[in-house]
Task: structure prediction
Amino acid sequence: YQLKIKKIKKIKIPFKVNGLHLGGGTPNILSDKSFKKIVKTISGNNEGENGSSSGSSESGYEEHKLLSSIEIDPRITSIEQLELLYELNFRKVSFGIQDTDENVLRMVDRKQDIGELEQLTKFTKKIGFKSINFDLIYGLPGQTKESITKTARDIIRLSPDTIAFYSYAHVPWHAFDQHELEKYPIASGKLKRELYEIAASELLSNGYQAIGMDHFSKESDPLYIEYKKHNLKRSFMGYSCNYFNTIVGLGASAISSTKNFYVQNEKDLEKYQRSVLEKRKIPIVKYYKRTASDILIGNIIEELMIYFEVPGSLLNQIKNFKHYSKIMNKLDEFENDGLIKMTESFDLHVTELGKIFLRNIATAFDYHLLLLQINEQKFSNSL
Result:
């Protein structure tokens, strides 16, 4: 890390940066000195431009030179580190919690003390961070109806502003260490969905509002405010109050996007480092140019993933698609199964039952996926 940090201070970024997100695991493993150099290099490029701030007051967060957020492993952070992050204009922090039940945490080999987490959360609020998010996972090995209820109540007591409640993806053919977890009971199907619904019911009964897919927010958080205004956005980065035409991904396997392109960096860390440090070049291994059809389908799927509906004015635009009949055949199946409702004006509404299968409904519009013949399992199950 230190070698890479020394290199970046020499880089001149050829554009103005409006937002910075540090994620992809545990960025708070970096030293204070490294954090300062990263932020100074990126935000320093914005200084002196009419003396204006690039932060957006419309986002609900206070304006500052760089709209910054970070993912943090609460087990390895400190009060001093949080103070530094606040000084560097980070205003949104996301804690990777997963679960609070001791038995579940033991099974997934994660040591985490609820008392320490409570003190850390209190200090994060006291120092002035504008939004605190907790990442939770349902379907973890060993989770039961009783344990998920306890976890939900623990989280409600700690009172984060937003909660991302993700489904555990059991993919041992990709993450080989997950084979070790198969000696424990892992919920699937109906039981896994019940775990989600139990926790969701607790959250909804205690001041949280459901947003899109697997997310919850207090009404005071910018995420919910923009959701109610119909201004919320979603990309491969998740839900966001801000829309950026260009996202530049730095680091191994990171994905960059513009209006018309997706680009992915080299996944192998050593190859990535050699290219950056020796060739001073970000190694790109994949790219895809989006067509007008791709952009339209992306807009439709985004509406589904956020608002569980698609207006007829948008849906009507796919009628000239080459694969329109295939898409409609899938939608007819979903309607017959009670997952969606279509109106005479061609509006699409996802039913309560359909929300469980939202990802499946979205795939109906992905004509690339419809044309693929997948002969091996590559993804986790929806339930």
Q: What stands out?
A: The two ends are 38 Å apart (CA to CA).
